[in-house]
Design a protein that fits this description.
Low-confidence stretches: none
Helix content: 25-40%
Structural class: alpha+beta
Largest sheet: 4 strands, antiparallel
Number of helices: 7
Order of helices and strands: EHHHEHHEHHE
């Protein structure tokens, strides 16, 4: 697996103005089977705009993931999970440097499913589906899209990377993961 990394920073206010559309992305989320079933997915008991506005800056991190060889392509879900974990490890390290900063995950939370050895989406392992609190609030992070951010436009405009999609059962040329860190100017140690 080969990963190309892309980074940029943008003021949160500018990001909200140009890339966040809560209503539009909430409608997309309603079509997903994770709606109301995973703690990192809408609907939330808070206003996503209020969540964004707690912070001044957004460090955007993108991974362009190339799967090389037949074995990697056959096990694409595992490889993507590994790439996502690599990104989250990096972002958790950044949280230590930016006190009060919070990571934004590439995609929805799969912590509980992965604990059970399940790599594909399976919302039944999230405690939200049992109407219980999150089992891992220290690790759970929202995604950009769950908070109303346009990941495709973010990747294209801010990172210069175009999202690709598989067609007719074929994997795309590459996968793109987009996450980041939202933080306040005064948070840097």
């Amino acid at each position: 697996m080969r990963i190309e990394e892309f980074k940029t920073r943008i003021p949160v206010r500018e990001y909200i103005d140009k890339y966040v559309d809560i209503e539009k992305f909430e409608e997309y989320c309603k079509e997903c089977r994770n709606w109301e079933k995973i703690w990192t997915c809408p609907p939330f008991k808070f206003d996503p705009i209020d969540y964004w506005e707690q912070f001044d800056r957004f460090f955007v991190l993108g991974y362009k993931v190339f799967l090389e060889g037949e074995e990697e392509r056959e096990n694409w879900a595992i490889r993507l999970s590994e790439a996502k974990q690599k990104m989250m490890d990096y972002l958790f390290e950044m949280e230590l440097m930016y006190i009060g900063g919070v990571s934004l995950a590439p995609g929805n939370c799969k912590i509980c499913a992965e604990e059970k050895g399940i790599i594909i989406d399976d919302d039944s392992y999230c405690s939200r589906s049992q109407e219980e609190p999150c089992r891992h609030p220290e690790k759970m992070r929202y995604s950009i899209e769950a908070l109303g951010g346009d990941v495709s436009k973010t990747a294209e405009d801010l990172l210069g990377v175009t999202l690709k999609w598989g067609k007719n059962g074929e994997l795309p040329e590459y996968f793109v993961l987009v996450g980041g860190l939202i933080y306040s100017d005064k948070a840097f140690m």
